[in-house]
Amino acid sequence: MRAENSAIQSSAIAARGTASALAPTLSAPDSAAAAPAFPAPTTGRGGTVLAGLGVVAFSLTFPATAWGLEGFGPWSLVALRSVLAAVIAGSFLLAARVPLPERRHWAGLAVVAGGVVVGFPLLTTLALQTSTTSHAAVVVGLLPLTTAVLGSLRTGERPSRAFWVAALAGAAIVIVFTVGQSGGALTSGDLYLFGALLVCAAGYTEGGRLSRQMPGWQVIGWALVLCLPLAVAGSAVALPLEPVHLNAHGVLGLVWVAAGSAFFGLYVWYRGMAAIGVARASQLQLAQPLLTLVWSFFLLGEEVSASAPVAAVAVLVCIAATQRAGRRRTGRESRSVRP
Predict the structure, then answer these.
(1) From CA 160, how far away is CA 334, in angstroms rounded?
(2) Closest Cα to residue 125, out of 195, 204, 225?
(3) Low-confidence residues of the chain, pLDDT below 70?
(4) Following DSSP, what letter does each residue of 88-155 receive, concatenated?
(5) In terms of DSSP bridges, do strands 327-328 and 158-159 run parallel, antiparallel, or are they unpaired?
(6) How far apart are CA 212 and CA 216, in angstroms?
(7) CA-CA distance, 198 to 188, in Å (whole number)?
(8) Do the beta carbons of residue 302 and residue 133 sit within 8 Å?
(9) 3-state SS assignment for residue 245
(10) CB within 8 A of 189, min separation 6: which ones?
(11) What pLDDT is recorded for position 207?
């Protein structure tokens, strides 16, 4: 009898242990349902595709801006672009019920806003009043290298020597090609273009860093919303002072730079940077000037020389080299990513 009681007690203890072990598993769905939903982490190949889509979207920015200037003044175009993009971004943030960013993220968001939402669009729009899109592509030719340097300093990425060799070679090809396209002459918009280069590289770098800590679409979304009061005030001042000539090119140009470049392009771009790193993503932009020249030929009627295909192939080789080059990861790079 005593043996039977001992067996029953042992069975009861075992049953309680099994129930305790199963409890976390049974409650897991409730915990998962309560957890905030983030997009699934992007693989390296997926990050390259996303960053590439961003480059394609950005390559249309200069031609679209040239179209936009047919209907709006430069200050009006930049202000309206920011207002429309902020409304789109704010709608997504409200629909997803995204909470306000943490206080420690606002300084970085301000850098993103100042660099890619206000600084780069304004300076390049002013430059395109006197420069062709082919000449303005010089900025984009230098941007990948500048972004890689700033990214290395800011995020701790340590690209390999092979990466830097390929990056410098690609930048040199793009600069020689685009300067040759513009006849090698400096324009009055060069000061605007070099300023745009610096502020955009800073915005890209800070956005890529923030995209490791919060979803990439929220980074650009909050940066756009942060600029909304300034954009509304700018529109109210600029529109009465600059003549508006509504036409199809002007409206299409405005819509693209707002929805395509400022929101969609930056969303996929930052998500791609979070997955593959600022330095590697930035080198994909080596293809942007050549794409811009193609769009300029078809959309604006600008002439493109026969050397474009040769330069395009050479740049693609450099891009492939930068993507294959190994990187020495630091402790900060090994942290989990939320694209």
Answers:
(1) 16
(2) 195
(3) 1-44, 139, 181-187, 304-305, 326-339
(4) HHHHHHHHTTPPPPPGGGHHHHHHHIIIIIIIHHHHHHHHTTTS-HHHHHHHHHHHHHHHHHHHHHHH
(5) antiparallel
(6) 8
(7) 18
(8) yes
(9) coil
(10) 126, 127, 128, 129, 130, 131, 135, 136
(11) 87
Q: How far apart are CA 191 and CA 214, in angstroms?
A: 34
CA atoms of 66 and 76, how far apart (whole Å): 13
Instruction: Report how far residue 246's alpha carbon sits from residue 292's, in angstroms, rounded to the nearest whole number.
Output: 25
Give every CB contact of residue 230 below 8 A, 6+ residues apart in sequence: 82, 118
pLDDT at residue 181 in the model: 65
- In this structure, what is the dihedral angle of CA atoms 218, 35, 209, 271, given to the nearest 10 degrees? -60
Neighbours of 324 (CB within 10 A): 12
Of 144, 171, 148, which Cα lies nearest the Cα of 160?
148
For the question of whether the overall pTM of this predicted structure is more than 0.85, the answer is no
Which backbone phi and psi does 277 adopt, to 5 degrees? 95, 150
Using CA atoms, how far apart are residues 258 and 334, in angstroms rounded to an integer? 34
Rg, Å, the chain Cα set: 25
Closest CA to 204 of 159, 256, 145: 145
- Alpha helical stretches, state H, 182-227: 190-210, 216-226
Distance CA 199, CA 214 (A): 22
* Crossing angle of the two packed helices 248-255 and 61-68, in degrees rounded to 10: 140
Q: Which residues touch 136 (CB under 8 Å, ≥6 apart)?
A: 62, 124, 127, 128, 189, 193
- Exposed (0-12), middle (13-18) or buried (19+): which is 71, by Cβ within 10 Å? buried
Q: Which amino acid is at 146?
A: T
CB 74 within 8 A of CB 129: yes
Alpha helices (H) along the chain: 2-34, 44-59, 61-68, 74-95, 106-112, 120-127, 133-155, 161-181, 190-210, 216-226, 228-241, 248-255, 266-276, 278-283, 288-295, 308-324
Which residue bears the tokens 């995209």?
Answer: 211
